[in-house]
Amino acid sequence: MQAFVTGIFVKSGMSRNLFGARHMTSILTNTAAMAALQTLRGINNNMEETQRRISSGYRVQTAADNAAYWSIATTMRSDNGALSTVQDALGLGAAKTDVSYTGLEAAVDVVTEIKKKLVAAREPGVDKTKIDKELTELKNQLQSIAESASFSGENWLYNTSTVAPATKEIVASFNRSADGSVSVTTLAYDTSTSVLIDTSDASRGLLTKGYAVAQPSGSTTTAATYYLINPGTAAASATEVKLTSTTSDNEIDGMMLAVEAMLAKLTDSASTLGAITKRVDMQEDFVATLMDVIEKGVGRLVDADMNEESTKLKALQTQQQLGIQSLSIANTNAENILQLFK
Fold it and tell me: If you write DSSP's letter for every residue of 30-69 in order, what string do you get?
């Protein structure tokens, strides 16, 4: 018996297609269904992977996806976490330097005002005791500035400890070298250069130590030493910048020379601290930019292209529908064979 079904000759359990190739048709083993099932399984696996990328946003989420890229991304994310801590430390350091710099600036203004009062005291007939009252208030203002310039328990302008002011370090950066070793970079500032008042040792404070000057004395000069604020430990050989009704013009000139030297020290200290403040601000901006760049670089390695993945998902959904239809057709082949026996 011969029959022609959908372009296939069936004879004695063997079939030949229109091109002459032979293959066996069996009701026990449906090779077409197996092939369709295998294709559908591959489509489903691809769809599952695509859906995972869309839901997570990552092309490389685990080491199994791409071990090299996953390793790089994990390391750089860890470094970015360290840089985030550095950013916090820089913010704390910036606050400390800003407070100290603000205090030094205010101190420069007050000492400048003191210099003006001394110049005014040189005028003939002026009441020096009244000017001294103004000097006293200006000194109190300097005391207030030094004591209040504190942040997070640290004061770089006012020292009460018997230990000399030390060098302070601000964490500035986290570094990873080519061989994988890591290190931390710090910014150092010697606070001994900015202490205004030292109650333990007057010689360590810019406003409490004595300034030796060549005080005018007629046509010659004499050595004299003046300090501005007495913290209780002033040197006995030094004289406080203070006016009385009997203060001579030569003494006022000597005080002005000492205040001028003091002002130069304050200006130099403020310049140094201002440079550190600027450096901290620049480093803070750099670290923030570096973190963004690292995050962007990691994204290029492991982030999924959502446009591409969504397009791929649409195509896979269409393939899945066709695969299901193909499997359904393959599963009806046995029914078609039964028609030959009718």
Answer: -HHHHHHHHHHHHHHHHHHHHHHHHHH-BS--STTT-HHH
- What is the bridge-based pairing of β-strands 167-176 and 182-190? antiparallel
Element (H, E) at 281: helix 249-302
Extract the tokens encoding 268: 């130099």
**Alpha carbon 293 to its chain's center:** 12
Residue numbers of the chain with a pLDDT score lower than 70: 1-25, 27, 234-235, 342
C-beta of residue 13 within 8 angstroms of C-beta of residue 24: yes
Q: How many other CB atoms are found less than 10 A from the CB of residue 119? A: 12
Taking the CA atoms of 61, 67, 73 and 76 in sequence, report the sign of the dihedral they define: positive
* Strand-pair category, 158-159 with 197-198: parallel
List the chain domain ranges. Answer: 24-57+307-341, 67-301
Q: How many CB atoms lie within 10 A of CB 67?
A: 11
Quote the tokens at residue 180.
Answer: 């994988």
Q: Give Cβ neighbours of residue 75 (< 8 Å, ≥ 6 apart).
A: none
d(C-alpha 286, C-alpha 306), whole Å:
30
Integer Rg of the chain from CA: 43
Q: Tell me the pLDDT tens digit for each residue of 181-228.
A: 899 999 999 999 999 999 999 999 999 999 999 988 878 889 999 999
CATH of domain 67-301: 1.20.1330.10
Q: What confidence score (pLDDT) does residue 341 get?
A: 73
Paired tokens of 298: 């990691």
- Please state, in angstroms and rounded to a whole number, the distance separating the CA atoms of residues 235 and 210: 8
Amino acid identity of residue 190, one-letter, is: D
CA angle at residue 207 from 206 to 208, to 5 degrees? Answer: 100
DSSP code of 153? T
- Per residue in 29-61, pLDDT (tens digit) is 778 888 888 998 999 998 888 888 888 888 888
pTM of this prediction?
Answer: 0.74
Cα–Cα distance list, 85 to 256, 292, 298 (Å): 48, 15, 19
